[in-house]
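From: lab user (bench 3)
To: helpdesk
Subject: output format question, protein + nicotinamide-adenine-dinucleotide

Hello, I'm new to running complex predictions and I'm not sure whether the block I got back is the full result or only part of it. Here's what I submitted:
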Amino acid sequence: MNELKPLKVAIIGCGTISHIYMTNIKEKFAILDLVACADLIDDRAQKRADEFGLKKMTNAEILADKSIDLVINLTTPQSHFEVCKDILNAGKHCVVEKMMTVDYPEAEELCKLAEEKKLMFGSAPDTFLGGGWQSVRKYVDDGVVGKPISVNAVITCSYQPVTATFDIGADNFFFPLHPGGGLPYDLGGYYLHNMINLFGRVKRVSGFGGNIDPTRKYVNPHHPKYGEAYLVNTPTSLSGILEFESGVLGTFLVSSDSAVYDSFTVQGTEGNLKLFHPNFFSGSIVLQRPGAIADEEKQIGMLKETGYRPAPDSVELPILHGYCDNNRGLGVADMAYAIKNNRKPRVHHSLGLHAMEIIHGMLESAKTGVTYIMQSQVERPKMRRTGVEIGTAQENSLDD
Ligand SMILES: NC(=O)c1ccc[n+]([C@@H]2O[C@H](COP(=O)([O-])OP(=O)(O)OC[C@H]3O[C@@H](n4cnc5c(N)ncnc54)[C@H](O)[C@@H]3O)[C@@H](O)[C@H]2O)c1
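Helpdesk reply: Thanks, we reran it on our side. This is the complete output you should expect:
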């Protein structure tokens, strides 16, 4: 019998996102055996330990425990560097939530350390491994839009200190308005990971903006600091252009200074794709392409009448891969199979590092007015295979 030997895993950081990680690891991934958790706030670690039948430990106890193979770092971005460094120095594999660190030099240091120690290290987001994004990858690779020419991302929302509890105490610490958590990192990272997954390495970037409006006010009269100014010390509005090695051109606009909007599109020689928010594992994939709706008579009629090819018709494409619901932790499970099968993890650190450098490059370019030449190397992660089973059997698709 070929019995699966699960990897012993612990989580550091027991805040909001830890719940879905723990649920998924316990229910969905036979390759992972979650045994312990820790948090700076002891009560939080205890709560999760009770909920999920884990051992509550301190960070130091987790690091010293020889039976733990891999640690998931779910702390806030400002703690990512220090906690990841400790995990790697303790000789354990590590997956950290997005983005890898607060800045690019710290991310480079961690990747170098992982390589020196020959440990696997990777960062979220892992939504690009979901059924929707893997299907988009297959459609693009199979030429459904012809030759890809451009990719465009717009993500805006209004992150203002509006609540009566904004930043009062640990429970209300709003990391997207603190270093490393700004919107280019917080939501921008999802789009960048998907762009790299679809089109590979970026050669050059240019950028504009950064932190165009650093001073905000506590606007809720119920907040004890009502009316006082609040300094946002992280980039909030950034616009940039990316040139991929493949020749594809990208645009990226991200802002937490404006109202909510998001769009992600790909344009090719034969058609366009209207895609969904990469914060999700799956969603609607719409192909706009002349002839996508088989109404030949209408098309020929229009062609004869106007002399032009008919306007693109839209059709929704089917999802081809499994893992379409909220599967946070999928990247960790993939890394565990990578360890088992001695292959590269799909959330390899080069991907997270490249995404960090794209933001870094845009910010540098915004300051200097000069196009930034990317240094980091990355390969597109291997696509998951299609036609997977349902339910927990989907995990089989990671065992490659
Ligand atoms: N909240 C979300 O919807 C969401 C979604 C996807 C990804 N993420 C990412 O997940 C990470 C955590 O986000 P969250 O929303 O759970 O934050 P959170 O503030 O709710 O929880 C973070 C926890 O980490 C603990 N912590 C901080 N520094 C620590 C340290 N040095 N050692 C031990 N514990 C420490 C805090 O006490 C806190 O309990 C972030 O990187 C974020 O970008 C969050």
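A quick orientation on your result: The radius of gyration is 22 Å. Let us know if anything else is unclear.
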